[in-house]
């Protein structure tokens, strides 16, 4: 049964990627976030693993509600990463520079000593 479920999920991911690639980025990102919401609800095992891992990572530093919010945001982010992946074939240098800003002013500091330690 796991194999069948994997095939179904793969087919859905490929279909979603193709559909998202045809949409403007703003609409695609919104839909990607909603896809993440849907995955959070449907993938109960993955949701449980995510919440368990957050509990281990944060211990008592975060409340259950805060961990829940982080988990939801993580799944939304996953859906939006699918959007990024679906649009990568249309990425040009000009489009990249309008979408991303890379700050390199502090890059020399980590490489300042021979060992590479900060």
Could you walk me through the main structural features you see in this protein, from its secondary elements to its overall organization?
With 118 residues, the protein is an all-alpha fold. It has one domain. Helices cover 71% and strands 0% of the residues. The protein has five helices and no strands. The chain has helices spanning 2-21, 25-42, 44-58, 64-87, 93-99. α1 (2-21) crosses α4 (64-87) and α3 (44-58) crosses α4 (64-87). The chain is flat, with a radius of gyration of 19 Å. It starts with a helix and ends in a 19-residue tail after the last helix. The relative contact order is 0.12. The mean pLDDT is 84.
For this entry, give a set of tags:
single chain, 118 residues, mainly alpha, 71% helix
Blueprint (SSEs and pairs):
Layout: H1 2-21, H2 25-42, H3 44-58, H4 64-87, H5 93-99
């Amino acid at each position: 049964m796991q194999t069948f479920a994997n095939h179904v999920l793969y087919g859905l991911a490929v279909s979603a990627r193709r559909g998202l690639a045809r949409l403007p980025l703003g609409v695609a990102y919104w839909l990607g976030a909603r896809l993440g919401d849907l995955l959070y609800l449907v993938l109960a095992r993955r949701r449980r693993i995510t919440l368990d891992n957050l509990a281990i990572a944060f211990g008592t530093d975060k409340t259950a509600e805060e961990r829940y919010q982080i988990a939801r945001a993580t799944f939304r982010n996953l859906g939006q990463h699918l959007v990024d992946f679906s649009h990568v074939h249309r990425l040009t240098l000009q489009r990249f520079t309008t979408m991303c800003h890379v700050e390199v002013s502090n890059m020399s500091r980590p490489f300042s000593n021979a060992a590479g330690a900060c």
